[in-house]
């Protein structure tokens, strides 16, 4: 029983394309996150979604947009992909924003 | 000033020694503090959560929190080669923010 699952695990695409990464959690958590981990391994928060409130990190380009069809899902859509978007993207969830987050297995995105 | 700062290391300790990992944070309003371990190519996994000042022990791991000094640490006793990983400090501000991580190597 996977608690936080992401698909796909690997994604290779060309510059300019639009792609989505899906995330689902079966923990009944109220808060979900998207993180980007770059080549230097720094985990940078992109979005958090808590009780229908979306908090956007101001440094994230508006080509990135989270979409939450329900509390258990927080998908990440990326428009006009650029080379610099290549990274590992992690979805995570927590009971609420004060509690520990549990991570999915990550999606390695490579833009060529 | 970074929100969460860690010594990036690398930190190398011999097997059986105590590994000490440190973290400072900038927001005095932070309420929740976490240590995660991340093996290469894997996702971060939670080791410890700590919410109040003092020490919290779980097996070979001890987390220490000092809110007045805005400091949180992780001690790993009897370090094993399998503890070799990157350790990430995380702090809840309005969401969970991570430090850059400390790479630990435990040598047999």
Order of helices and strands of chain B: EEEEEEEEEEE
- Overall mean pLDDT of chain B stands at 94
Q: Portion of residues in helices of chain A?
A: under 10%
Question: Using only CA atoms, what is the Rg of chain A?
Answer: 13 Å
Question: Helix count of chain A?
Answer: 0
Strand share of the residues of chain B? over 45%
Largest sheet of chain B: 6 strands, mixed
Strand content of chain A: over 45%
What is the first-to-last residue Cα distance of chain B?
37 Å
Molecular shape of chain A = globular
Description:
The complex is a heterodimer of chains A (112) and B (108). Chain A is mainly β and 112 residues long. Helices cover 0% and strands 56% of the residues of chain A. In chain A, strands 2, 4, 5, 6, 9, 10 and 11 form a seven-stranded mixed β-sheet that branches. Chain A has a four-stranded antiparallel β-sheet with strand order 1-3-8-7, with no helix packed on it. The model of chain A has no long low-confidence stretch (mean pLDDT 92). With 108 residues, chain B is an all-beta fold. Chain B is built from no helices and eleven strands.
Summarize the structure.
Chain A is mostly beta strands and 112 residues long. Chain A contains no helices and eleven strands. With 108 residues, chain B is mainly beta.
Lay out the secondary structure.
The complex is a heterodimer of chains A (112) and B (108).
Chain A: E1 4-7, E2 10-13, E3 19-25, E4 31-37, E5 43-50, E6 53-56, E7 64-70, E8 73-78, E9 87-94, E10 101-103, E11 107-111
Parallel strand pairs in A: 2-11
Antiparallel strand pairs in A: 1-3, 3-8, 4-5, 4-9, 5-6, 7-8, 9-10, 9-11
Chain B: E1 4-6, E2 11-14, E3 19-25, E4 32-38, E5 45-50, E6 54-58, E7 61-66, E8 71-76, E9 85-92, E10 96-98, E11 102-107
Please give a handful of descriptors for the protein shown.
A: 112 residues, mainly beta, seven-stranded mixed beta sheet, globular, B: 108 residues, six-stranded mixed beta sheet, five-stranded antiparallel beta sheet
């Amino acid at each position: 029983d996977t608690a936080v699952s992401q698909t796909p695990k690997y994604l290779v695409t060309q510059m300019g394309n639009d792609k989505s990464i899906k995330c689902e959690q079966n923990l009944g958590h109220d808060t979900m996150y998207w993180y980007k981990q770059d080549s230097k391994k720094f985990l940078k928060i992109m979005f958090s979604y808590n009780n229908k409130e979306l908090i956007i990190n101001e440094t994230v380009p508006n080509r990135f947009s989270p979409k939450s069809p329900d509390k258990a899902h927080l998908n990440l859509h990326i428009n006009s992909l650029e080379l610099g978007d290549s990274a590992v993207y992690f979805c995570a969830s927590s009971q609420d924003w004060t509690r520990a987050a549990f991570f999915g297995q990550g999606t390695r995105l490579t833009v060529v | 000033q970074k929100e969460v700062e860690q010594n990036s290391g690398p930190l190398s300790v011999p097997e059986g020694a105590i590994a000490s990992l440190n973290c400072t944070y900038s927001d005095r309003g932070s309420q929740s503090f976490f240590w995660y371990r991340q093996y290469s190519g894997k996702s971060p996994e939670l080791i410890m959560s700590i919410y109040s000042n003092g020490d919290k022990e779980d097996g070979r791991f001890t987390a220490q929190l000092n809110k007045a000094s805005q400091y949180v640490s992780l001690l790993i006793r009897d370090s094993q080669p399998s503890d070799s990983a990157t350790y990430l400090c995380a702090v809840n501000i309005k969401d969970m923010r991570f430090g850059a991580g400390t790479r630990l190597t435990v040598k047999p």
